[in-house]
Design a protein that fits this description.
Oligomer: single chain
Number of domains: 3
Number of strands: 3
Structural class: mainly alpha
Strand order of the largest sheet: 1-2-3
Order of helices and strands: HEEEHHHHHHHHHHHHHHHHHHHH
Shape: elongated
Low-confidence stretches: 84-89
């Protein structure tokens, strides 16, 4: 026999779609349809007349027919496009009426996402991944949903536990989006004491404005005076050394040292090595001699910053190409690369 929706469910859906509907989600465990309308939330307790899985497919086909004019359900080709952000030409709002998680993801990934649509998509599927993706859109980060999603990510960072890539990416989104205030970023920074992967995105994106800065190096003023001419001339090594001995520089070095002494994954290692190189090179390689003739007392320090300026993932690539090791085994394998860098960092902090 051909399965159809129970008459009462069909009628309720027709009533539902006569309203100004914003989003729909299906609770498969309780067989309940939840809807967000212009007047608030509504719910329908479904009355399946066949197996639950089959009945939910019928409900989604009905929703898709109402929303998209596609009675066969959510179009398969949209599923292929979802994660490539290629559905901006569609009416994104209608996708949120299908009850399909994949349709919500299509909206979340779309470059055409607006702050209003983000609110509806968030109601439909409030996950860490969706919050992170939506905050990458300037319209959302600067809108009313920005702080909502930012606060959610800060509160849920501990749930990522040992997913260090997700931690780094989440912190990067929080910093780049500007959706949370300095107090919330301080909270994230403090979590680096328990899992140093929290520091990585700060070193990548906020190296000159790190939270809770340490005191400047005791010789910072003396170095600035000794290197005054080189600094005025834009000497790369002199600028890097002055930066390293400043309060922000000492904070950067302390965090970098913490990470390199105990990195957990290969991604953490490669990203922090690249961040160190960018910080000391000033985002562009410099070719001038690392030691000024008039600055011999600081020759070792100038040489150290020159080595750190040349730092990047190239040193560990051959190792990681032959191994998928993480944790303590990985740390032993990369020791020949990391040990000299740590020695330079300790010199600059000493």
């Amino acid at each position: 026999m051909h399965e159809t929706l129970a008459p009462e469910d069909r009628f309720r859906l027709e009533v539902l779609f006569s309203q100004e509907l914003k989003a729909v989600r299906l609770d498969e465990a309780s067989m309940t349809l939840h809807a967000l309308t212009a007047r608030g939330e509504a719910s329908i307790a479904l009355t399946p007349n066949c197996r639950a899985e089959k009945y939910l497919r019928l409900v989604r086909e009905q929703l898709s027919g109402y929303a998209l004019g596609s009675p066969g359900g959510y179009p398969v080709y949209l599923t292929r496009w979802t994660r490539h952000g290629q559905v901006e030409g569609l009416n994104l709002g209608k996708l949120l009426l299908t009850g399909e998680p994949e349709a919500v993801l299509a909206v979340v990934h779309s470059p055409a996402l607006t702050d209003e649509l983000a609110r509806y998509a968030w109601w439909a599927m409030p996950t860490i991944e969706n919050a992170r993706l939506m905050l990458r859109r300037a319209a959302v980060a600067r809108g009313a949903m920005g702080p909502v999603l930012g606060d959610f990510l800060v509160e849920h960072l501990p749930f990522l536990q040992d997913d260090h890539v997700a931690i780094m990416d989440t912190v990067a989104v929080l910093i780049h989006s500007g959706a949370v205030d300095s107090t919330r970023l301080d909270t994230v920074w403090k979590r680096g004491k328990r899992a140093n992967s929290h520091y990585v995105a700060f070193l990548e994106l906020a190296a000159g404005a790190l939270p809770q800065p340490l005191a400047a190096h005791a010789e910072h003023a003396a170095v600035r005076a000794a290197l005054a001419e080189a600094l005025a001339a834009g000497h790369g090594a002199a600028l890097a050394l002055e930066r390293a001995l400043s309060a922000q520089g000492q904070t950067f070095l302390a965090a970098a040292q913490d990470i390199l002494e105990r990195p957990e994954t290969q991604e953490v290692v490669t990203r922090v090595l690249n961040a160190i190189g960018r910080y000391f090179s000033g985002d562009s390689p410099w070719r001038d001699a690392p030691v000024c003739d008039t600055c011999q007392p600081w020759a070792a320090h100038l040489q150290a910053v020159a080595r750190l300026a040349a730092c990047d993932e190239a040193g560990v690539k051959p190792i990681f190409a032959r191994s998928t090791a993480i944790g303590s085994l990985m740390r032993r394998k990369i020791q020949p690369v990391v040990a000299p860098l740590l020695a330079d960092i300790r010199l600059l902090r000493g």
